[in-house]
Amino acid sequence: MKKILFIDRDGTLVEEPADEQVDALEKIRFTRGVMRNLSFLRQHTDFLFVMVSNQDGLGTSSFPESTFWPAHNFILQTLEGEGITFDEILVDRHFPSDHAPTRKPQTGLVEKYMTGDGYDIAHSYVIGDRETDAAFARNIGCQSLILGRDGLTWDKIAELVYAGERTALVERTTKETDISVRLSLDGSGHCHIDTGLGFFDHMLEQIGKHGGIDLDIVCHGDLHVDEHHTIEDTALALGQGLHEALGSKRGIERYGYSLPMDDCQAHVCLDFGGRPWLVWQADFRRERIGDMPTEMFFHFFKSLSDAAHMNLYIHAEGQNEHHKIEGIFKALARSLKMAVRRDIFHYELPSTKGML
Questions:
Q1: SS3 176
Q2: Considering just the CA atoms, what is the radius of gyration of the chain in Å?
Q3: Given 8, 23, 129, 186, the catalytic residue
Q4: Summary mean pLDDT of the chain
Q5: Quick one: which H or E segment has residue 289?
Q6: Under a CB-based contact definition with an 8 Å cutoff, are residues 113 and 130 in contact?
Q7: Which helix (H) or strand (E) segment is 210 a member of?
């Protein structure tokens, strides 16, 4: 079954001018990264390329065809020179006030792909730059990739289309805890954390925020006993989620960061080489920070390392205990961000063994 990239033109392939009409050659500016990445996708995937573009009033006095076609053909010829061709080009000429069924986000122009046999709509994408493109995708029943939303670039779009989004859902239920961890390594740091331990939530949020990982963690644990099971089992579920989301590990950087935090320096190195190990060099004088026992810090990172199949080295020095552990979590986040970064142009295992 064929998958499709429904690709917008203005604002996506070329920058949209202030008057929202690309009606002259001097107005044409290709968006950053479009050539390299669309050329890669055309060469290395079997997606159909379908351009779908609203051109308000094309053919009327406000937008004569004589000004549209020279610019449009120049765009197509330039893209073709980079190996980027389209299987179909669909243009709607209506004004928004016409409420035409063929104007995005309505789906009149692409009905044959939605109803015809042989098309995998669920795994297709709309690539655009506006909310109307996202609504268009929802109406079609496919996924959307919106340029500029949450910092989404053409580099990231190509990565997600080619190699897939790295997500995981881990649900872990025992007599002591009931945990759900949902994460996306290719997110933008959106977090929802609720473990019943305020300081622990704050530390886990550092992982998502500074690691660029979308993270949703909910834990209902036996806090009437103590904090041990909540912290340990959350670490195990989070580590399992990281391991599952990484998948084949092809193209990842693998290694990973140090950072200062006021009076403290936190040094966190990691390796997703498949061999769990923890070196812990951090001492704490206080019994608790917030509602989290400091003795559980080591246990959290040990459980995380084991479940993520990750070699983890942690060293921290400083005077302020809060700064010290927060620095560790932030350094872990940045180390994760570095290690999971993926390069589809060198899409191979980062190992001489041929496996991780």
A1: coil
A2: 25
A3: 8
A4: 96
A5: strand 288-289
A6: no
A7: helix 198-211
Q: Among this protein's residues, is 10 annotated catalytic? A: yes
To the query of whether residue 271 is one of the catalytic residues in this protein, the response is no
| Distance from chain centroid for Cα 211 | 11
Q: Angle between the 295-308 and 321-340 helix axes, to the nearest 10 degrees? A: 10
3-state secondary structure of 6: strand
The b/e string for 235-260 (b: 16+ C-beta within 10 A; e otherwise) is bbbbbbbbbbbbeebbbbebebbebe
Q: 238: pLDDT confidence band, cut at 50, 70 and 90?
A: very high
Query: DSSP label at 2?
Result: B
Rounded CA-CA distance 300/278 in Å is: 11
pLDDT over 90 at 167, yes or no:
yes
Residue pair 157/210 in contact by the 8 Å Cβ criterion = no
Residue in the block written with tokens 């990484």: 246
Helical packing angle, 228-246 and 198-211, nearest 10°: 20
Please state the length of the chain.
356
- The structure's pTM equals 0.90
Sheet strand arrangement including 125-128: 88-92, 48-54, 4-7, 125-128, 143-146
Instruction: Give, rounded to a whole angstrom, the gap between the first and last alpha carbons of the chain.
Output: 32
Q: Using an 8 Å Cβ cutoff, are 226 and 296 in contact? A: no
Q: Within 10 Å of residue 287's Cβ, how many Cβ atoms? A: 8
Please, what's the b/e burial string for 117-153 (b: 16 or more CB within 10 A of its CB; e: otherwise)?
eebebeebbbbbbbebbbbbbeebebbbbbbeeeebe
Phi, psi of 324 (to 5 degrees): -65, -50
pLDDT the model gives residue 258: 74
Strand, helix or coil at 118?
coil
Burial of 343 (0-12, 13-18, 19+ CB in 10 A): middle
Count Cβ atoms within 10 A of the Cβ of residue 182 and give its class: 0-12 exposed, 13-18 middle, 19 or more buried.
middle
